[in-house]
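R.M. (postdoc): so does anyone remember the format we settled on? I'll just put the structure tokens first.
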């Protein structure tokens, strides 16, 4: 498990997409992971619920492709999709448990796959990832002025990241950095198929 956090518009999805593309395009037998690599999101069930219940709400794939659409007001509800996601998500957590999304993803995942998580944002998610032998990666884009909220800012002061992936360059260079980090983190266990943390941590 490699989980990327934590603030919006830093490059988390770009990093994961670059890794997925690398895995599928690699032809060298020695470099190709021996286990399937998949991208997952803690919030995926939340998007599905909102999509099913709110006619104006779009799919997670749409919002991943056009993230600024999450900031546009749905007039009937006088809320943006982002506000809806936060509100519904917090309500579900208060009813089911704070770690319901983390446990849902990690309990149901295929243990034979390498799971890339695109939205690590809460301490309970960090704990769940670490308890599952996973790695936490902070993606940061220096100089980008993004207004935070009660979701984005939770891990601002946490300093337990296994790695920091800095997005202070052009897209191609950043994608290269993401792929190199993936190789470093997975070296030592994707070939053997064992679920253990890499010895290459920084």
């Amino acid at each position: 498990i490699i989980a990327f956090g934590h603030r919006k518009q830093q490059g988390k999805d770009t990093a994961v997409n670059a890794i997925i593309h690398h895995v599928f395009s690699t032809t060298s037998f020695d470099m190709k992971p021996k286990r399937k690599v998949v991208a997952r999101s803690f919030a995926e069930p939340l998007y599905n619920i909102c999509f099913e219940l709110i006619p104006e709400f779009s799919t997670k794939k749409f919002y991943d492709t056009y993230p600024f659409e999450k900031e546009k007001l749905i007039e009937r509800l006088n809320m943006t999709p982002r506000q809806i996601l936060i509100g519904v998500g917090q309500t579900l957590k208060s009813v089911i448990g704070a770690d319901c999304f983390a446990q849902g993803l990690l309990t149901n995942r295929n243990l034979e796959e390498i799971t890339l998580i695109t939205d690590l944002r809460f301490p309970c998610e960090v704990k769940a990832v670490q308890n599952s032998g996973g790695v936490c990666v902070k993606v940061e884009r220096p100089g980008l002025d993004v207004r935070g909220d009660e979701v984005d800012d939770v891990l601002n002061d946490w300093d337990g990241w296994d790695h920091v992936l800095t997005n202070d360059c052009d897209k191609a260079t950043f994608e290269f950095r993401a792929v190199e980090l993936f190789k470093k983190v997975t070296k030592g266990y994707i070939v053997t198929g064992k679920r253990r943390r890499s010895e290459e941590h920084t």
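R.M.: ...and that's the designed sequence above, right after the tokens. Also worth knowing: DSSP finds seven helices and five strands in the chain. Strands lie at 2-5, 37-40, 114-120, 135-140, 163-166.
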